[in-house]
């Protein structure tokens, strides 16, 4: 195969895609599938020794200092999930949200937003908020369609609002500042959460016939007493995010502060048992190992793609087409929605960046802004069948048919499409905060 024309880009892409989908279809782990694709590419299209190249690349990618924040943030989320801190958070939010149009359905959105700020994982956010809110909302007579749909969409905020695991992976892949990406995700994350809440309020206005039990009125003082339950989680958010924005800590150091803070709060609260501690540690280890293997495979695939010249050739083709940045973003939106139907978010990011990054740079698109765009379209992938990860989690929690859960999430998917359009029209939503903080230092 090394005798083929070096410019045979179509052949190379065809071989890569065939091997990739064959390996993924066989049930092989994503990380190992990526390594297999890269190995075939190295053998077929380059004279280099694939074994030596793989060992060096895998070690280099796995030993990145920036990447150490990933398992720490995962562990922090696991601690919160397995202790009473998350339950107290819901109880503290409920009295304030009951008077909004749509009532306690807003607790799905606000709860996911708050928990996302100390978790970074869509799955952890969905599982934690879902196990608290689903029984309570059902008991009060809220429509099942709205309970599941709002939870499916709002849980994706765990991918955008810092600390976001997807943004960490993206930053490591394209070599951009993790802290800047975290700052860039704050305002778009708040806007998207507000859009979700607007959808609930609109539903409440249109479908007034759907009655649900209203919460008893309580005094302002009682609301304030309930709010004291939020203090531990708010303190943790301030420690993690505040230390980064103030320039006191890097993303990795902030993650370490978050783990220590979560352990201290859970101990003071009395909900940190030895069993919960071990389960959180094992859960974080399993998730971190899975993501690390994917990143290793992606790093080797990036090297193989670079040797074959495919990214450079594709970037040249894009440049020759003279697509405007808006046209490129529109094409990439469709591309990521399709690929997201078959891959989880992190896999989609690391698998495609080797090809996409040169195109984006050639088009003059800001990589910090593009990171937020990627997170939004990857969020869509969490709720699109057949491999929407959040849909699988909800199916396990509610026992509903997959097609029903996908229908409930469809309005949230359309809201995310609208969010992409808003980001294109108002790019400052993502770039203003990191630029302002950088200028003030």
Give an overview in words.
With 441 residues, this protein is an all-alpha fold. The termini are far apart. The protein contains 21 helices and no strands. The longest helix is centred in the middle third of the chain and has 35 residues.
Write the layout of secondary structure elements.
Elements: H1 9-25, H2 30-45, H3 50-62, H4 69-81, H5 85-97, H6 106-119, H7 122-139, H8 144-154, H9 165-174, H10 178-206, H11 220-227, H12 231-245, H13 251-269, H14 274-308, H15 310-321, H16 325-340, H17 345-362, H18 367-381, H19 389-398, H20 402-425, H21 428-440
Helix pairs in contact: 1-2, 2-14, 3-14, 4-13, 4-14, 5-6, 5-11, 6-7, 6-8, 6-10, 6-12, 7-8, 7-19, 8-20, 9-17, 9-18, 10-18, 10-20, 10-21, 12-13, 14-17, 15-17, 16-18, 17-18, 18-20
Approximate strand percentage: under 5%
Task: Enumerate how many helices there are, as a single number.
Answer: 21
Judged by helices, strands and strand pairing, the structural class is mainly alpha
Distance separating the two termini: 53 Å
Q: On the 0-100 scale, what is the average pLDDT?
A: 79
List keywords for this structure.
mainly alpha, disordered N terminus, 21 helices
